[in-house]
Design goal:
single chain, mainly alpha, D-Maltodextrin-Binding Protein, domain 2, 2 domains, 4-stranded mixed sheet, 21 helices, elongated
């Protein structure tokens, strides 16, 4: 264990002095922040460039002031103007106009519920839907024609709102709001996304183990290192070292991205993040890293040079991306058969399990215990197998090991 920690410290110090690693350490969060800021800039420019829609209203019911107030509260970019134009002349008026509409509010709105609308050809395609905003003041006039009292008019104008309810007698549980669902969703998604980000950070950093073992073989310093420690110490030290480097990458990224995220999204992320379930999610992420790291360090020792990596070694690099196969089935049915299958396959367990737990309201604890047990056993098995491959492969020069040769080493 002592030699393992020495190797880990050596890997950490060596990479922290490496310009490539340092650039990547800050470049990753910079790219994320860049996309967020660019999205804001483009969004603002689109809002600024939104053309004003000019609406001429022939008002025979004297409700123009009410319409003005309704539109001002909606935030729509409309320029309302009164007009005395006749309906028969409106077609000539809009022929050479852009973003222009004519509304004729007369007795037809009261008797038939119809308001004739004439628009220019290049008007906003959503304009007709936006006009539904004026339905409320027109309905108020209709109700006044029925001699309803102000209280009755207010009741009918308010409409009906559907809320989720509960049979529980607790007063706090019966109070429901439209944001309740969103809050529950955020409580599940934010911790899961946080754990997933940590796993990806340390797994991507752990992929450098490939290059590390291969580089030491290429520079022919493996014999010197192994003269003072065992292959197991070297392998375990590399895994621990790159795990710490991955955590450093995750901490730096979160420290830089989180303030920007809090600024861009009006959600109390910190309140939803630090929940007891986060411990389990991070444990799953760490087990996922240990699984892939053991494979990377073992296969990396079989290559004499990264540039000559064969198809077999290249396929190993794709293992962390296997959970993407299950994204569709899991998101459509987190408790379905495909989601359960992905949960019990060691290579897909971390990603699929994190995705499922971020979507399910009630966690299937039996499935979680089984999946975590599979991960722990898989990590132990692949650590042992990687140790056998690493012991022979790190001292083999001249060519990359074939799958057949690796199989012989495992059986020895």
């Amino acid at each position: 264990m002592r030699n393992t920690m020495k190797v880990a410290k050596w890997e950490i110090k060596r990479n922290l002095k490496n310009k490539t690693f340092l650039i990547g350490l800050f470049l990753t969060p910079a790219i994320i922040i860049g996309f967020m800021v660019l999205g804001t800039l483009f969004g603002d420019s689109e809002e600024e460039e939104t053309a004003v829609t000019t609406i001429y209203i022939q008002d025979q019911l004297d409700i123009f002031p009410v319409i003005e107030e309704t539109v001002s509260q909606s935030g729509l970019n409309w320029d309302l103007q009164m007009t005395e134009i006749e309906e028969s002349e409106v077609q000539n008026a809009i022929e050479n106009s852009e973003n222009t509409a004519y509304l004729f509010i007369d007795e037809r709105a009261i008797d038939e519920g119809i308001v004739p609308v004439y628009t220019s050809e290049e008007i906003d395609p959503f304009f007709t839907n936006q006009l539904q905003l004026l339905e409320t003041p027109l309905q108020t006039i209709q109700m006044q024609q029925l001699d309803l009292s102000e209280e009755e008019i207010a009741t009918l104008s308010r409409g009906v709102m559907f809320q989720e309810a509960s049979n529980e007698t607790d007063e706090s549980s019966t109070e429901t709001t439209t944001s309740g669902f969103n809050e529950g969703l955020m409580e599940r998604i934010i911790p899961g996304a946080f754990a997933g980000f940590i796993m990806l950070s340390i797994v991507f950093t752990g992929m450098a183990i490939f290059q590390s073992a291969s580089q030491e073989k290429k520079d022919k310093i493996a014999e010197i290192i192994l003269s003072s420690l065992t292959p197991a110490d070297l392998m375990q030290g590399k895994i621990v070292g790159y795990f710490v480097l991955g955590i450093i990458q995750a901490v730096v990224s979160i420290a830089l991205v989180l303030p920007v995220l809090l600024w861009r999204i009006d959600i109390p992320i910190v309140d939803y993040l630090f929940v007891p379930e986060l411990v389990i999610l991070i444990a799953i992420a760490i087990l996922g890293f240990l699984l892939f790291a053991s494979i990377f360090v073992g296969i990396g020792a079989t290559m004499t040079d990264m540039t000559t990596a064969g198809n077999f070694q290249g396929m190993v690099m794709m293992l962390p991306f296997l959970p993407f196969i299950f994204i569709g089935p899991v998101t459509s049915d987190p408790s379905g058969l495909m989601a359960q299958i992905g949960t019990y396959i060691p290579f897909t367990t971390p990603g699929v399990l994190l995705l499922r737990l971020s979507m399910l309201e009630e966690w299937p604890w039996i499935e979680i215990i089984i999946a975590v047990a599979i991960l722990i056993v898989s990590v132990w098995i692949f650590m042992k197998l990687a140790g056998k491959i690493f012991k022979v492969g790190i001292l083999m020069y001249g060519k990359n090991a074939t799958p057949g040769e690796i199989w012989k080493w495992l059986r020895a």
